[in-house]
Amino acid sequence: MKQGEKIAFCGVLCALSTVFVVGAGLFPTMTYALPAIAGVLLVAAVMELGKKWAFFSYVVVSLLSLLLGTDKEASCFFCLFFGYYPTLKSLLDPLRNRVIQWLLKLLVFNAAAVVLYLTAIYLLGLPPESFSVAGIPAEWLLLLAGNAVFVLYDKAVGGVAFFYWNRLHPAVARIFRK
After folding, report:
1. What does the pLDDT read at residue 118?
2. Alpha carbon distance 103, 60 (integer Å)
3. Does 178 score more than 60 pLDDT?
4. What are phi and psi of 136, to 5 degrees?
5. What is the mean pLDDT of the chain?
6. Which UniProt keywords apply (predicted)?
């Protein structure tokens, strides 16, 4: 791909991802789902252009979502986890030792979850009671459930990457005459 084509391709991916993250402000029930979808879109940047371009796309979408988005929690979800995860996954998946691979993935997810929790409490001003169930603090239960959902998300990102490479990549390659 020529330099101009790479910039255009990244621009389209960044615009689409930004629309999804900013869209969480219009659909408050989608605070978690839309940033996750926005992150999955960056799989195309990883596969077509490489990790460096995907990382720069993540930075651009993060900045735009923080500036334009009304749902700062959704923007934080993208910035602190969903945005960089497809690139990180492309670095961790080639590891031969699956135990180390999953330990690293879970370590990154749990660190991001703790930072997101602290950001929600101290920067966004959410009351700690919002993380309780029937008045009982449920942070650990939420973290455990989050780990289960993360495993599903990891599998989904892998499935999207497989689908993209087999179905969409040939069309993109024809368009850009790779």
Report:
1. 92
2. 29
3. no
4. -100, 125
5. 93
6. Membrane, Transmembrane, Transmembrane helix
Q: Is 17 helix (H, G, I), strand (E, B) or coil?
A: helix
Q: How many whole angstroms separate alpha carbon 96 and alpha carbon 100?
A: 9
| Residue at token pair 């869209």 | 23
What are the residue ranges spanned by the domains of the chain? 3-176
Give CA–CA dist 11/6, Å, rounded: 8
Alpha helix locations (H) across the chain?
3-23, 33-41, 43-49, 51-68, 72-77, 85-92, 98-118, 139-163, 169-176
Beta carbons of 116 and 131 less than 8 angstroms apart? no
Q: How many CB atoms lie within 10 A of CB 145?
A: 11
Q: Let me know how long the chain is.
A: 178
Beta bridge partners of 137: 132
What number is the average pLDDT over the span 58-87? 96
Contacts of 75 by beta carbon, 8 Å cutoff, 6+ apart: 21, 24, 35, 62, 65, 66, 69
Reported confidence tier of residue 77, pLDDT bands at 50, 70, 90: very high
Residue carrying the six token digits 């390659």:
173
